[in-house]
Amino acid sequence: MGGGSLQRSACTDTQAHQLARLVRQHYDAELGKAGLRTTQYWLLAEVLAHGPVRPCDLAEAMSLSPSTLTRNLKPLVSTGLLELGPGIDGRTRSVRITASGRRKCDEGLPHWTAAQARVHRLIGSRNVSALHALIEECLSSMSAGQ
Fold first, then answer.
1. Are 47 and 82 in contact (CB under 8 A)?
2. CA–CA separation, 117 and 126 (whole Å)
3. Nearest 5°: phi and psi at 72?
4. Which pTM does this prediction carry?
5. How many CA atoms lie within 13 A of 96 on its CB side?
6. Over its length of 146 residues, how does the chain's per-residue pLDDT go in tens digits?
């Protein structure tokens, strides 16, 4: 890299971002058929799996900043898929999935499955396994080096 020019293939951030963007496009296109974006489906599935959960715990579990979580929760709360209420001790808040949210999550599951299958088909099963292993290793290394 000379003269301040950026070579795409030499920038890890650019490479990771491009892959994430392409993968996300496949999931968003498929989940859009259920009226969801990938982040919305992911949030619904996490709250469904963990039951009522404090926003700070949900943000940590999803590796999101509290402000990003708040921004992503708003449309799901306003459409009645999630509700934000008092926590167990009355001092904290809790995110809960509603009956509508459960139905929407159920509606999204076959679309998520289709997106997953398509991405795996495009990448190749051996590459998917290698990619997952590499991502786990990188996440572990990056987390340890913070």
1. yes
2. 13
3. -75, -25
4. 0.84
5. 11
6. 455 556 666 798 999 999 999 999 999 999 999 999 999 999 999 999 988 999 999 999 999 999 999 999 999 999 999 999 987 777 889 999 999 999 999 999 999 999 999 999 999 999 999 999 999 999 899 888 76
Exposed/middle/buried for 113, CB within 10 Å: 0-12, 13-18, 19+?
exposed
User: What is the distance between the alpha carbons of residues 124 and 79, in angstroms, rounded to a whole number?
Assistant: 37
What is the Cα–Cα distance from 69 to 53, expressed in whole angstroms?
Answer: 13
What domains appear along the chain, each with residue ranges and CATH number?
Answer: 17-114 (1.10.10.10)
* Beta carbons within 8 Å of 129's beta carbon, 6+ residues apart: none
Give the list of residues 6+ apart from residue 46 with CB closer than 8 angstroms, or none: 53, 58, 61, 62
